[in-house]
Design brief:
The complex is a heterodimer of chains A (about 60) and B (about 400).
Chain A: H1 8-18, E1 23-24, H2 27-30, E2 47-50
Antiparallel strand pairs in A: 1-2
Chain B: H1 2-7, E1 11-14, E2 31-34, E3 41-45, E4 50-53, H2 59-67, E5 71-72, H3 85-91, H4 98-101, E6 108-114, E7 120-122, H5 136-140, E8 149-156, E9 158-159, E10 163-171, H6 174-186, E11 193-197, H7 199-209, E12 221-229, H8 232-248, E13 251-257, H9 260-271, H10 273-280, E14 283-289, H11 295-308, E15 312-318, E16 323-329, H12 335-355, H13 374-377, H14 380-393
Helix pairs in contact in B: 6-11, 7-10, 11-12
Classes of the chains: A alpha+beta (about 60), B alpha+beta (about 400).
The complex binds flavin-adenine dinucleotide.
The site of flavin-adenine dinucleotide (FAD) has 36 residues of chain B, from β1, α3, β8 and α10.
Chain lengths: ~60, ~400
């Protein structure tokens, strides 16, 4: 399976929708997202974004 | 999601990243969708015994919050201090107390899900019963982030059991320990926890935590058993019954943790075993599960297979559920041996597990690392059905590609 590689236009779109603070693209910043607790596997994403909270009701 | 779908950009949802099957790894690059900021406990409904939460809520935070209302959210993966409820749903996570209380599946009533198309649905209703068509809630649970992104969760809660006793039983023979697991239930006991632990797992955890824990040479296996409830007398009676059963089952000694700190010490050791194994050497963790009474054959067979390949294993896990975590340690083996021979050993262990009526994962999921073994456990027809379900939800295959099959 091949997927479209993320380009600057896509990143701009994500930043417009989510705000720049929630879109991570730097290699060092992406490093924590490249692995989990499984053995020693590493896959670096092109971009990561935090899902922004749309609504918060008081507990 | 709508944008990514239209552009054919792949998206990998990510919780806390404590998964043990590589489910949150972006194997095709693209976008990682981190859910950690969706961490609000929206509501604790004390009338209906329900909680509405976002997926980034840490399991233990939810447990502590609802406890303040006298309520209990039982699923308790050993990673509960870190892992998220969203990740728990994606893997249908269990944990020690799944024995008495069931897994995540048993506590999810309704889910808000963002589909790969960007459409947002609720999968069911906030009710204890549901018979209104196919149960989409249960389809999403355990789907490992391949069908939709869980963004809100309605959970069932139960009253918090106020008392518990924790026992540590030691055995000279691991097979006797495995046999005792079934005897406990056949003897009329219903513990909330029954964990099998090899002494090496305790030693690795003690080294890792830098705490003391003696494992006498005569001891070859432990059972960590918890009995809970609201009536101290009944619990004490069940402990006595348990003691008799364990002694009749060749147990060497039964220790009762009498203080909260003793209980916490044992639990801390138990919960650190995974990380401790990982720190000690490169390892592979297999999440085998068989019907409980077949545990002795699984354990003995695993040791025989590992010995034939010259591999050291350390086993522990949720024995009451028949769920044995087998950690295969690399030790001094070469990378070539590790990368090729271990796969063969794993296949043999899985075949044994399946021949005993079990399967290749009880709670960690298939993700990336177990997918090559899935055809051992499920038929081509089943895999085809799964693929078709995937295409129904995600025709462009943009969500968490490269996982499960
Ligand atoms: C020390 C240790 C002990 C463990 N003990 C246990 C145990 O006792 N029992 C047990 O069952 N597991 C255990 N695990 C495994 C792991 O903690 C669980 O699988 C956990 O549920 C993963 O949650 P997470 O938030 O870390 O998810 P992640 O690892 O981030 O993701 C796991 C999967 O869920 C998907 N996902 C995450 N969030 C969402 C969402 N909101 N919507 C859709 N998909 C999503 C991801 O794409 C991925 O496929 C343990 C792990 C460790 C490291």
């Amino acid at each position: 399976m091949t997927y479209k590689q993320i380009d600057e236009e896509d990143i701009k779109h994500f930043r417009d929708v989510l705000s720049a603070a929630y879109v991570i693209t730097g290699k060092d910043q992406l490093e924590p997202f490249a692995h989990d607790y499984t053995e020693d596997l590493v896959f670096v994403p092109r971009s990561s974004y935090y899902r922004q909270i749309q609504e918060r009701l008081p507990p | 999601m709508k944008y990514c779908n239209s552009k054919h950009i792949c998206v990998t949802p990510r919780g806390a990243g404590t998964g043990l099957s590589g489910g949150a790894l972006p194997v095709y690059g693209g976008v990682v969708l981190g859910l950690q900021r969706m961490n609000s406990i929206v509501k604790v409904d004390t009338e209906n015994f329900q909680a509405i939460v976002e997926p980034g809520v840490i399991n233990e935070v939810l447990q502590q919050t609802v406890k303040e209302y006298g309520l209990f959210y039982p699923p308790d993966p050993a990673s509960k201090g870190t892992c998220f409820i969203g990740g728990n749903i994606a893997h249908c996570s269990g944990g020690p107390r799944a024995l008495k209380y069931g897994t995540t599946r048993d506590y999810v009533l309704n889910l808000e899900v963002v589909l790969p198309s960007g459409d947002i649905i609720w999968t069911g209703a906030n009710t204890l019963k549901y018979a209104s068509g196919y149960n989409l809630t249960h389809l999403i649970i355990g789907s490992e982030g391949t069908l939709g992104i869980v963004t809100k969760i309605v959970l069932k809660l139960i009253p918090f059991p106020t008392q518990n006793s924790l026992l540590l039983a030691s055995f000279a023979s691991p097979i006797d320990a495995c046999r005792a697991v079934s005897s406990i239930f056949m003897g009329g006991c219903s513990p909330s926890v029954c964990e099998f632990i090899e002494p090496l797992a305790f030693r690795l955890a003690a080294d890792y935590l830098q705490v003391a824990f003696e494992t006498p040479e005569t001891v070859q296996a432990y059972l960590l058993i918890e009995i809970d409830g609201n009536n101290g007398e009944l619990i004490a009676k069940e402990c006595e019954n348990m003691y008799t059963i364990l002694t009749e089952g060749n147990c060497l000694e039964v220790l009762l943790a009498t203080t909260t700190s003793e209980k916490e010490h044992l639990w801390k050791l138990r919960r650190s075993m995974g990380e401790a194994s990982k720190k000690s050497t490169v390892y592979k963790e297999e999440d085998t599960v068989v019907p409980r009474a077949q545990l002795p054959e699984l354990f003995a067979g695993t040791k025989t297979i590992a010995a034939r390949y010259g591999l050291r294993t350390v086993c522990y896990g949720h024995a009451g559920d028949g769920n044995l975590h087998i950690n295969i340690l690399k030790d001094e083996h070469s990378d070539a041996y590790w990368n090729h021979e271990v796969k063969e050993a794993i296949k043999e262990i899985f075949r044994l597990c399946i021949s005993l009526g079990g399967t290749i994962s009880g709670e960690h999921g298939i993700g990336l690392v177990q997918k090559e073994y899935l055809p051992l456990a499920v038929s081509e027809i089943q895999i085809d059905l799964m693929r078709n379900i995937k295409r129904c939800f995600d025709p462009n295959l943009i969500l968490n590609p490269g996982k499960i099959f």
